[in-house]
């Protein structure tokens, strides 16, 4: 919805706050009306509709929560955002349970408030937000359990559809935790081999001395402990798909045997005298740059070209931020269901924290974070205070603490948000220490307003 057509009702018993909000929102092109109390707001709501209601929780006559209830009954399609300088976690949760889109604590940052309003108007209602999210998840779950709506993931979905119809070997590359095995499974499930076995092998998790036997099997008496014949994973995957995860960890001798199996479509069990024909498709994955491993002599060039007929590159989560929201909601619902908790959504402020984090552990780290947040949450909405990201993020930021900032590091990739936040945190702590906890004095030392320092202290959890 465009700003020019959006009608907003501001309800606050503080005249200066009403005027400030009216001016801010009017400048953005919204049609703004104000009410000095709950009863006046109810009268306006009965006579006309509004697209959005921005309401203080504490009013002079009736509670803002009562106005919220009435607004949801009179205009179910309206979005309600609660604001308050006194909102507790319990109050915020109650407001959101009653249908509020979000709550904004005072003092608020102007830009963040305007962004929240814009997001709320774009979604229009909590129900519309849920509908959009479910639509995203339906699209993102098109290939098995893969979740992602970013252009990068849409491109990968297209590639999955294309390569699944072929018998070509596929190499999936990307950092750890990006979901390479899920992509391999999706290729198998979309192929004509879907009814046959999908066998996944972690090449870095099997000792070298056992790898050949695991892959190709062995005959009784082939070595000490071989008390009976064993069928290898290649035979178990006959007519299906083998997924060789972290293929860059294979030793050179095993690479030679694997190359023969790929070229001739036969394997020979350890201690065996005859070849066994196998019909398999190979999908490999690695977080290494195999081209460099080939140059270094750690990976056979002929094997590299054999497994790398088609390459699918999976970008890290920090390069596809659009996927964070549907992923976080997906994991929230998954673990809420497993733990028997009635947790339904993330607040927009909690989501903003996730979007500011770079997730060096990628999707796997996000999943672990959401599992912990659901486990520790005592409410049915994940608010910033209950989001376990703060612990993870502080640990991650500590990695840059007490070091000199070198601009040459930009070439390697840095997190500007984390660097700036650490600087802000350090200056705020120092100013508060020098001022013995006096916020007015600390604000003077930093050349900012009292409202600004209150906002910054609360934002960084230093209150």
Topology (elements, then pairings):
Layout: E1 7-11, H1 15-27, E2 31-35, H2 38-47, E3 52-56, H3 64-74, E4 79-84, H4 89-97, E5 102-105, H5 110-123, H6 126-140, H7 151-164, E6 170-173, H8 180-190, E7 198-202, H9 208-216, E8 217-218, E9 230-231, H10 233-236, E10 241-245, H11 252-264, E11 266-267, E12 276-277, E13 281-286, H12 290-295, H13 301-307, E14 310-313, H14 324-339, E15 345-346, H15 348-356, H16 362-376, E16 381-382, H17 389-398, H18 416-434, H19 439-446, H20 450-459
Parallel strand pairs: 1-2, 1-3, 3-4, 4-5, 6-13, 6-14, 7-10, 10-13, 15-16
Antiparallel strand pairs: 8-9, 11-12
Helix pairs in contact: 2-3, 7-8, 11-13, 14-16, 18-19, 19-20
Q: What does this 3D model show about the protein?
A:
With 463 residues, the chain is of the alpha/beta class. The chain has four domains: 3-124, 3-Layer(aba) Sandwich (Rossmann fold); 165-315, Rossmann fold, CATH 3.40.50; 319-393, Orthogonal Bundle (Helicase, Ruva Protein, domain 3), CATH 1.10.8.60; 407-459, Orthogonal Bundle (Arc Repressor Mutant, subunit A), CATH 1.10.10.60. It contains 20 helices and 16 strands. It has helices at residues 15-27, 38-47, 64-74, 89-97, 110-123, 126-140, 151-164, 180-190, 208-216, 233-236, 252-264, 290-295, 301-307, 324-339, 348-356, 362-376, 389-398, 416-434, 439-446, 450-459; strands at 7-11, 31-35, 52-56, 79-84, 102-105, 170-173, 198-202, 217-218, 230-231, 241-245, 266-267, 276-277, 281-286, 310-313, 345-346, 381-382. The strands form five sheets. The chain has a five-stranded parallel beta sheet with strand order 2-1-3-4-5, with helices on both faces. The longest helix has 19 residues, at 416-434. The two termini are 37 Å apart. The model has no long low-confidence stretch (mean pLDDT 84).
């Amino acid at each position: 919805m465009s700003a020019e057509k959006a009608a907003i009702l501001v309800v606050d018993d503080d005249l200066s706050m009403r005027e400030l909000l009216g001016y801010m929102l009017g400048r953005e092109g919204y049609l703004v009306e104000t009410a000095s109390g709950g009863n006046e707001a109810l009268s306006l709501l009965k006579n006309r509709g509004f697209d959005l209601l921005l309401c203080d929780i504490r009013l002079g006559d009736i509670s803002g929560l009562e106005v919220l209830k009435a607004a949801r009954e009179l205009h179910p399609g309206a979005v309600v955002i609660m604001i308050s300088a006194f909102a507790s976690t319990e109050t915020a949760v109650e407001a959101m349970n009653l249908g509020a889109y979000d709550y904004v604590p005072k003092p608020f940052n102007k830009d963040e408030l305007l962004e929240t309003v814009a997001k709320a108007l774009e979604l229009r209602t909590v129900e519309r937000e849920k509908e959009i999210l479910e639509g995203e998840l339906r699209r993102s779950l098109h290939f098995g359990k893969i979740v992602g709506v970013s252009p990068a993931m849409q491109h990968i979905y297209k590639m999955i559809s294309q390569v699944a119809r072929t018998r070509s070997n596929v190499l999936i590359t990307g950092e750890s935790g990006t979901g390479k095995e899920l992509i391999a499974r999706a290729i198998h499930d979309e192929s004509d081999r879907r009814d046959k076995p999908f066998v996944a092998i972690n090449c870095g998790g099997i000792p070298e001395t056992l790898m050949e036997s695991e892959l190709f099997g062995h005959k009784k008496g082939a070595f000490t402990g071989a008390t009976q014949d064993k069928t290898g994973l290649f035979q178990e995957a006959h007519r299906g798909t083998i997924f060789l995860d972290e293929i860059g960890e294979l030793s050179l001798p095993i690479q030679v045997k694997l190359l023969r199996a790929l070229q001739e479509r036969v394997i020979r069990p350890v201690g065996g005298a005859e070849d066994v024909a196998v019909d398999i498709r190979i999908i490999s994955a690695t977080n290494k740059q195999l081209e460099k491993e080939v140059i270094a002599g750690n990976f056979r060039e002929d094997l590299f070209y054999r497994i790398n007929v088609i390459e699918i590159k999976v970008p890290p989560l920090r390069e596809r931020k659009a996927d964070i929201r549907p992923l976080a909601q997906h994991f929230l619902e998954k673990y809420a269901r497993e733990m028997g908790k009635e947790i339904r959504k993330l607040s927009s402020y909690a989501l903003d924290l996730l979007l500011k984090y770079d997730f060096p552990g990628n999707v796997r780290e996000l999943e672990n974070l959401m599992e912990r947040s659901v486990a520790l949450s005592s409410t049915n909405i994940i608010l910033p205070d209950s989001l376990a990201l703060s612990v993870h993020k502080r640990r991650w930021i500590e990695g840059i603490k007490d070091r000199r900032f070198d601009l040459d590091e930009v070439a390697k990739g840095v997190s500007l948000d984390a660097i700036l936040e650490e600087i802000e945190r350090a200056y705020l702590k120092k100013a508060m220490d020098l001022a013995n906890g006096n916020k007015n004095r600390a604000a003077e030392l930093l050349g900012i307003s009292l409202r600004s320092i209150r906002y910054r202290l609360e934002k960084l959890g230093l209150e």
